[in-house]
Amino acid sequence: MRVALLSLMSCGSCAENLELACRRTGHELAWSSLTDDGEVPDVDVLFVEGAVDFEDAEAQERLERAVTSADTVVTLGSCAATGGFARHAIGMREPARYHFTVFPAAKFAGTDYAIPGCPPTEDAIAAFLRALEEGDEDRLEPYRVLSGDFHGLAPDLPAPVRGPELEVEDVLLTSNKDLCLGCDLDVIERDLFCVGCGTCAAACPARAIELDEKPEVRQERCIRCGTCFVVCPRSFRP
Amino acid sequence: MRGLLRKVLGRSRRDGGEELDPELVGPYRSAYLARATDERVREAGQDGGVTTALLTHALEEGLVEAAIVATTGSDPWKPEPTVVTSPEELLEAAGSKYAISPNVSLLEEAVSAHESVALVGTPCQVTAVRKAERYAHGVADVAERVRLLVGIFCSENLEYENLQRLLREELGVDPSRVERMDITAGKFTVVTEDGEERTVPVSRLSRYANEACHFCADLTAEDADVSVGSTGAPDGWNVVLTRTDRGEEILQSAVDAGRLETREVSEGDPKVLERLARDKRERVRDSRCATWRPYHPSGP
Ligand SMILES: Cc1cc2nc3c(=O)[nH]c(=O)nc-3n(C[C@H](O)[C@H](O)[C@H](O)COP(=O)(O)OP(=O)(O)OC[C@H]3O[C@@H](n4cnc5c(N)ncnc54)[C@H](O)[C@@H]3O)c2cc1C
Ligand code: SF4
Ligand code: SF4
Ligand code: SF4
Predict the structure, then answer these.
(1) Domain end position, chosen among A147, A166, A191
(2) Which of A202, B47, B205, B270 lies 20 to 30 Å (CA to CA) from residue A11?
(3) Residue A27, SS3 per DSSP
(4) Mean pLDDT of the region B58-85
C-alpha cells in the first residue's frame, strides 16, 4: 500500500513509529508533511497525526484537502484520535482562553479508523496495517469504532476554563467530559460507572493510575493519552 | 460487536431443549452441576470449589503458568489481587470475598512475566479482559496469553468500607469475627467464629453495593470461557456454564482427570438461576441512568 502522513499539532513520535512500522511491513511511505512540501499525492492510506486549533483555519483547510487524496483515512495517536497531549496539555493550558479550542484532527475530517496511543507502538501500527491490507473486518472493527463520533462533541466552545488546574473528572476515565461518550449529566460521577476492575491501571503506559478499589490518577504523570478510557469496560461496550 | 465476539470465540447456541434459557444466562455450550473431587479444595472453596479445581488443573497440566486471583490481604475479608503460580496459593485464595478486587489491574504484569495466564473475575472484569483483547492499545498480548477466563457469578459487589458497614450495621458483627460469608437463596449469611449464623435478605445489600453494579445486567459472566456460580445448585455444588471451545475443553479434561464430578443441571434448581438472571437484567432497565444505555446498544 502507498502511505502518506500529515502531521499537525503534535510531537512527531507517532510519525516516527509509523515510519518504522511501514518499513517492517513493507509498505511505502510515499509522502510525509514533515519532509515533503506541497499537496498530498494520491495514496491508499493517509495517516493524520496531531490536533488542530479551532482558530487555525489554514490547518483545517489543509486537513480537508488532504483527506480527499486517500481511499482510507486513519487518525494516528491520541492527539489526532481522541484528544491527547495536544488538546489537554497545550490546548487547555492557558486558563484565560476557552476550554475547547484545540481538537483532535478527527473532529475536523471524516476518518475511517483511529489508532489511539501516546504514541501507538510500532507493533500496534504494524498490526493495524496488516489487518487493513488483509481487509480483515473483524480485526479492523475496534479501529473503526474508535474513529466514530463518540461524543458528538461540536466545537462550539461550551465552558470556560475555571482555573489552571484541571479536575481529574474533566480529563479522564469514565466521566471524561471530552472522551466520555456524551455523558453530559453533571450528576454522573466517576464512581457511578466505575466497577473497580483495574483495567485502566494495567493499561496506563505512564503508570499514572494507582488504585486500591477505584482508580486515582496522578496528574503529574498523566500524558492524556486516553488509553484508560479506551480499555475501560464502562466507557463503551466491546 | 458482541455477536461478533461470539463468532470469533466459536460460541454457539444450543438448539432447543436447553437446560437454561440462553436469553437469560447468555449463550453457552454446556451446563452442569459440578464440584471438586478433592476434599481440601471443596473445603477451601466457596461452593463446590470448581473454580479452584479448574485453575489447579490448568496450572498442573501446564495450560497456564500463572493465574490472577483474589487472595485475602492483611485486613479481614479485604481481597487483594494476586498472581499465583502454585496449587497451594490457589487454595489460599479460594473463597469469595464480597468486596472489590481489581484483578485486571495485574493483567499487564502477569502477561509480561508469563507466557500463559488464567484470570478469575466478576462478570465485569471478564468483560474488561475481552475488551482488552480486542482493543489492544493498552495491554499488549492479552489475546495470545490469556488462555483461560473464569467468571464467577455476581449479583453485586461492595467497596470494602461498605462491606464493613454492612456487617456492623445490618448484622451486628465485626469483620474480624466473621468465619464465613455467603450469598445463597436470597440471603446474605455470615457465620461468626463461635459458630453463630446471622442473615439478612439480599435486598438489603443494594444500599451498600457499589453504584456501578446498579447498571450491570450480567449475572453469569457471559464473556467468560467458563462461568461458575452457586445459584441454582444444591449446597456444596456449583452451576458451571462453558461458553467457548476452550472452556469446554478444559472442563472436560478436568473431568477426565478426575478433578471434577458433574451432574445434570436439572438436578439442581435452574429456574431459580433463570429468575435471578432475569431480575438482574430488569434492574438495569428500571434504573434511572439515562446515559448508560445509548452507548450500550447490546444492553437491555
Ligand atoms: C461479590 C460477589 C458476589 C457474588 N454473587 C453471587 C450470586 O449472586 N450468585 C452466585 O451464584 N454466585 C455469586 N458469587 C460467586 C460465588 O460466591 C462463588 O465464587 C462461585 O460460586 C464459585 O464457587 P467456587 O466454589 O468454585 O469458588 P472457589 O473455588 O472458592 O473460587 C472462587 C474464586 O474467586 C476469586 N474471588 C473471590 N472473591 C473475589 C472478588 N471479590 N473478586 C474477584 N474474584 C474473587 C477467588 O480468588 C477464587 O479464585 C459471587 C461472588 C462474589 C465475589
Ligand atoms: S491516566 Fe494513564 S492511560 Fe489515562 S490518559 Fe493518563 S497516561 Fe493515559
Ligand atoms: S477501567 Fe475499571 S477500574 Fe478503571 S475506571 Fe474503568 S471501570 Fe473503573
Ligand atoms: S454486579 Fe456487575 S458491575 Fe458489579 S461487580 Fe458484579 S459484575 Fe461487576
Answers:
(1) A147
(2) A202
(3) coil
(4) 96
Q: Whose CA is closest to atom 4 on ligand 2? A: A228
- Determine which helix (DSSP H) or strand (DSSP E) holds A32, and give its type and residue range: strand A28-32
* Domain carrying residue A44: 2-147
Closest partner CB to B160 (pick from A120, A213, A232):
A213
**A118 neighbors A229 (Cβ within 8 angstroms):** no
CATH of domain B21-154+217-285: 3.40.640
Lowest mean pLDDT, pick from A100-104, B64-68, B84-88, B168-172? A100-104
The model's pLDDT over B188-199, given as tens digits with 9 standing for 90+, comes to 999 999 999 999
- The CATH number for B158-208, chosen from 3.10.450.750, 3.30.70.1290, 3.10.590.10, 3.40.50.740, is 3.10.450.750
Q: Along chain A (238 residues), what's the average pLDDT of each consecutive run of 10 residues?
A: 96 96 96 94 96 88 94 94 74 46 80 92 95 95 77 32 31 37 34 80 90 81 80 72
> Cβ of B230 under 8 Å from any chain A Cβ?
no
SS3 (DSSP) at A179: coil
- Give how far Cα B113 sits from Cα of B65, B85, B110, Å: 10, 11, 5
Q: With 0-12 CB in 10 A as exposed, 13-18 as middle and 19+ as buried, what is B264?
A: exposed
Residue of B nearest to A197 (CA): B102
Q: So what's the pLDDT on residue A214?
A: 84
Residue nearest atom 4 of ligand 4, based on CA coordinates: B213
The shortest C-alpha distance from B112 to chain A (Å) reads 11
Give residues (CB < 6 A) around ligand 2. Answer: A 172, 204, 206, 208-209, 217, 222-228
Q: Please check whether residue A160 lies inside any domain of the structure.
A: no
Domain ranges of chain B: 21-154+217-285, 158-208
Structure ipTM: 0.85
Mutate to test the interface with B, among A140, A181, A197, A237 (most CBs of B within 10 A): A197
